[in-house]
Automatic annotation (TrEMBL):
Alphabetized GO MF terms: LPPG:FO 2-phospho-L-lactate transferase activity
Record protein name field: Uncharacterized protein
Gene3D superfamilies: CofD-like domains (3.40.50.10680)
PANTHER family in the cross-refs: MATERNAL EFFECT EMBRYO ARREST 18
Domain of life: Eukaryota
CDD domains, sorted: YvcK_like
UniProt cross-references to InterPro entries, sorted A to Z: CofD, CofD-like_dom_sf
A Pfam entry, by short name: CofD
Organism in which the protein naturally occurs: Kalanchoe fedtschenkoi
Length: 401
């Protein structure tokens, strides 16, 4: 139905539901900005059409076993990077399957059993090493040993291996050794054998810990919720007292707002792509945490290319009660940095960031077309996302050429 076009670039930028059966991008280049696991279900289908995909991932998720790594080592959270690389690994042969099984393995919840199993892995005696070549064994074991050495150097902290991810340990060991999160992520991607042309980039390239803060609509200026987990998945599972107003980065000590720099590689890639699509994920913690960085709004607004927002089928904890226009508003405010430092505030309209809105068939929220029209988002489609999305993006691309 569609012809392949080598120079077509497709950028997936934070927050969406991409179709499962795509026929257009047979040799396309795509950027995916977001995080979490919502996008993983479509990666296998996407791989059939293109491997030229760049995924831009937030590094502030302190949920799960990441909390223990952050407590002892600090630094950026690597769990979402590890998760996306594992999802991209195609497992096309016995060895890549074995590598994926090892780096995707989680230790038991029981602390003693977890520590014992980790020692087996570090010593190279675990059955998970079966099927790996000597080269892969040396690389993975080398950085696992380096991670363990760093644990010993921080013995006062008494690191707990419970429910720990082997892939996270590898990434942290590689980051500390290379002094570069980008380098560690690249090595991890290559060891896992993600498809040629695919890239995984941290949205912020740093060795510092990044902590998200959140203000609610009804809170006072200095009242914040601190941490990705407390914002998105509070332990009591009770709704916040009001809707989320904004997320932002806060200092490691105290609640002062800080402004980390976006990874230059992300801006470079956004400057080159021919289509921007906001990938599915938690709206505030996964999506806006990437969009609010200085330079991102300027870069996206400057592009005269299709900019597609694809919504999930229902609202989640962060977006309870949201209508379709609410998503557009929040994304626009994040890119304009409306609630941040006034000196860096932008005044772009929603249409400068979003030209097309896709809603999945069977959606469970209100699609308020009148407000969407007021936002000048006129191209709204409700579809099953099989072939319609790719056809409409093709139409958008032709319109901007």
């Amino acid at each position: 139905m569609f012809k392949s076009r080598d120079n077509f670039h497709f950028s997936l930028c934070v927050g969406v539901v991409v179709p499962r059966n795509i026929l257009l991008f047979l040799s396309a280049q795509m950027d995916c900005v977001g995080g979490g696991t919502a996008f993983h279900d479509v990666i296998a289908e996407l791989r059939k059409l293109t491997t030229q995909v760049t995924h831009v991932i937030p590094v502030s998720n302190d949920e799960g076993s990441a909390a223990e790594i952050l407590r002892v080592f600090g630094g950026p959270a690597v769990g979402d990077l590890r998760s996306r690389c594992l999802a991209l690994s195609d497992g096309s042969n016995v060895e890549t399957l074995a590598v994926r099984a090892l780096l995707g393995h989680r230790l038991p919840n029981d602390p003693r059993r977890a520590k014992s199993e980790w020692y087996q892995i570090v010593e190279g005696e675990h059955t998970l090493w079966i099927g790996l070549s000597e080269a892969h064994r040396q690389i993975i074991r080398g950085f696992s040993v380096h991670f363990q050495t760093q644990v010993h150097l921080r013995s006062d902290e008494k690191f707990c291996f419970s429910d720990g991810s082997i892939g996270d340990f590898f990434l942290v060991g590689a980051r500390i050794f290379s002094l570069s999160l980008d380098a560690a992520t690249l090595l991890f991607s290559e060891v896992l054998g993600i498809p040629a042309g695919s890239k995984v980039l941290p949205v912020i390239s740093t060795s510092d810990r990044l902590t998200l803060g959140c203000q609610l609509m009804d809170s006072k200026e200095r009242e914040i919720i601190r941490g990705h987990k407390k914002i998105s998945h509070p332990s009591d599972r009770l709704p916040h007292s009001s809707r989320i107003k904004r997320v932002f980065y806060v200092s490691s000590e105290g609640d002062n707002e800080v402004f980390p720099s976006v990874n230059p590689a992300v801006l470079k890639h956004l400057d080159e792509v021919d289509c921007i699509v906001y990938e599915m994920g938690s709206l505030f913690t996964s999506i806006c945490s990437s969009l609010l960085l200085n330079g991102v709004g300027e870069k996206i607004a400057s592009r005269t290319c299709p900019k597609v927002l694809i919504l999930s089928g229902s609202n989640d904890f962060e977006t309870s009660g949201f209508k379709a226009s609410s998503y557009v508003t929040v994304i626009t405010e994040a890119l304009n940095r409306v609630h941040g430092n006034g000196r860096n505030r932008l005044r772009n309209k929603p249409k400068h960031y979003i030209t097309t809105l896709f809603v999945p068939k069977g959606y469970k929220f209100v699609v308020d077309n009148r407000l969407l029209e007021e936002q000048e988002v006129f191209d709204v489609s409700v579809s099953s996302f099989c072939h319609v999305l790719m056809f409409r993006i093709e139409q958008e691309d032709q319109r901007y050429r």
